[in-house]
Amino acid sequence: MDAWDVVVIGGTVAGMRAAIAAHDAGASVALFDGRAHGSDAGAADTGGLAISMGEATSTAHRDDTIRAGRWLSDQDVAAARTSAAFEELALLERWGLVLRRDGASLPLLQQLPGHSVSRVASTGDSTGRELHQLLEEQCIKRGIPRRVDMQAVSLAMHDDGSACGAVFFDVQEGELVGVQAKTVILASDGFQSAWNGDGVGDGTGAWLALVAGIPLRDMEFSACNPLNVETVDLSLPLTLIDDGAKVRLASGGDVEFEADSGLDAASQQILSGGELCVLDARVLKRTSRKWYSDTAERVQSRCGLALDADVLPLSPRGELTIGGVPTDCTGRVTSGGEPVEGLFAAGGCCNSGFHGADIVAGNHLLDSLVGGAAAGDAAASTSASFGFGSPEAVTAELSTAGEKVAHLLHGADEGALTRAAGAFQLASVMSDAMGFERDAATLEAAAVRISEISTAGLQLSDANPVMNTELVEVLRLEGLLKLSAAAVASALHRAESRGSHQRSDHPERDDAGHLQHTLVDSSGNVSDSPVNQGSGDDWLLAPPE
User: Fold this and answer.
1) I want to staple 228 with a disulfide (CB 3.0 to 4.6 A). Which of 189, 317, 442, 533 is the partner?
2) Cα separation of 309 and 220, whole Å?
3) Rg of the chain (C-alpha set)
4) pTM
5) How far apart are CA 168 and CA 518, in angstroms?
6) Separation CA 28–CA 6 (nearest Å)
7) pLDDT above 90 for 535
8) Residue 391 CA neighbour count, 13 Å, CB half
9) HSE-up (13 A, CA, CB side) for residue 3
10) pLDDT digits over 453-462, tens only?
11) Are 270 and 314 a contacting pair, CB within 8 Å?
12) What is the structure's pLDDT at 231?
């Protein structure tokens, strides 16, 4: 059985940044990803990297984050993330990241939804891809093992609740593999595939934690990309807005995004008028067009339209989730307010407390980078303080996982759904009940429907485990069903409209009153947890009266 100081689950930006930080802190590290090399490149990144360069302090960035998040941000985390942005960007540039530059040869900063000033750096329409490639190179230089096509199935936990490893399904060999670890870092993406049904964003880290008995936080919150092209689901980079492109109403006039709007609030502005909105990139600055060559090619191939000659119909689409595994500022996972020994999380699968109820443009990538680095450092430090325990917990979990996989391969129940049918039905339920507006009756019906899909079970057409990608998709879909049930339960519990969670039966905003996180366990039980309003004297402690 393999044994490592630190095991990272997820080949995302956050996962690779965590692996690099843990390695540089002296730990032995291995990264496991359920997908092929590079398959996560550019996923869920249309906003660049937020950084308060040129400002005297990062205070305004912190306050913009808290304000757009409707005061549900952990204010200590918001302060730590925003203050670390400059150092993180400087490190990326030393590693070779090529950013857009202004006339003074400094990184070009753009003003996007949620920011009161220009604060987002990017490489045009390739920020996610460039950053992913850069971090892959850094992992290779350090000799960090990256094992792909290794789908995580479950976490191995000691009787005292501490993490000691994980079980993976090796897609190429068709075998289950147990891996022992002093510390585990969950660093997969969010669970937005529950709405979209496209397999992008399966929330592996979140459902691993939920099944292991760790309640998830703020699962009712998510965020849309306002610049999503209708019918073809093509997400466009938000930086187009600052480069001259306009969001226009079909009846005439422009949509101006408010300075305190997060991504979901900007999407609400597009939808609030009840008429079609279009993106007009014909007025894009000539000096900026070269940064959007990939976007122009995708618009042409997917829509048959020219970015510089046609307008594009917009229909905001879910792109990021905010809820997930609760962590503190160091990335350590918490349960009931207490740390879970040996378990850390970063990136889309976790809820660091940074975003609150909505995401500010560029903050998702910032959270992945800074959060990943913090989790890697903390995991390495923790692993240095003790030795490997008994592998018995990993062996026991390996046996349990084997029974589960065997049932999926050979024991499908009568009436079980195919993976495609299950994903389609789940996406329909989530789009209807957990869309831009929600109400108790629809959410209750959604909870029943998700339970019915889960009870029906999922079937496979291939009983051979070798290269059985259908089995992997079924494992992920089972996890998505669990996360969707948790999200619906949390949405039912929060009887107020806040940020990306809008209750049509409770339209009043309760910004000043209900400053609470939601925590939901695997049984659907939901409780409140207080929001950390910060320990600094100058924190933005509460919303205005």
Assistant:
1) 317
2) 39
3) 22
4) 0.95
5) 30
6) 6
7) no
8) 13
9) 12
10) 999 999 898 8
11) yes
12) 81
**Domains by residue range for the chain, with CATH:** 227-317 (3.90.700.10), 396-507 (1.20.58.100)
pLDDT digits (tens, 9 = 90+) for 390-421: 899 999 999 999 999 998 998 767 788 999 99
What string of H, E and C letters represents the secondary structure of 174-194? CEEEEEEEEEEEECCCCCCHH
Cα separation of 292 and 304, whole Å? 16
E strand or H helix at 223, and its extent?
strand 222-225
499: closest CA among 510, 489, 490, 488?
510
Q: Where are the alpha helices (DSSP H) in 174-318?
A: 193-196, 204-211, 263-272, 293-303
CA distances from 138 to 21, 85, 143, 180, 344 (A): 11, 19, 9, 25, 22
Q: Are 530 and 226 in contact (CB under 8 A)?
A: no
Please determine, for residue 270, whether its predicted confidence score (pLDDT) is greater than 70.
Answer: yes
d(CA 485, CA 28): 37
| Residue 101, number of CB atoms within 10 A of its CB | 11
Structure tokens at 501: 């969670």
Say how many residues make up the chain. Answer: 545
Q: Which residues contact residue 42 at a Cβ distance below 8 angstroms, ignoring those fewer than 6 apart?
A: 126, 127, 128, 129, 132
Report in angstroms the alpha-carbon separations of 91 from 86, 131, 345, 372: 9, 12, 22, 14
pLDDT higher at 443 or 513: 443
| Residue 324, token pair as written in the block | 């997930």
Q: Where are the beta strands (DSSP E) in 301-445?
A: 311-314, 317-321, 325-326, 332-335, 338-345, 350-351
Between β-strands 175-186 and 277-280, what pairing exists: parallel, antiparallel or unpaired?
unpaired
Q: State which H helix or E strand residue 420 sits in.
A: helix 419-433
What one-letter code names the amino acid at 254?
D
Tell whether the model's pLDDT for residue 189 goes beyond 80: yes
User: What is the token pair recorded at 85?
Assistant: 């942005």
Q: First vs last Cα of the chain: how many Å apart?
A: 58
In eight-state DSSP terms, residue 406 is H
- The pLDDT of residue 513 is 57
Measured between alpha carbons, how far is residue 416 from residues 117, 222, 453, 458 in Å? 53, 30, 9, 5
Give the helix ranges, DSSP H, for 113-227.
Answer: 127-142, 193-196, 204-211
Q: Distance between CA 392 and CA 41 in Å, rounded? A: 36
As a whole number of angstroms, the distance between CA 344 and CA 339 comes to 9
Instruction: Fill in the DSSP letter of residue 53.
Output: T
Structure tokens at 135: 């971090």
- Residue range 461-483, pLDDT digits in tens: 888 999 999 999 999 999 999 99
Query: Which tokens is 216 given?
Result: 């998830």
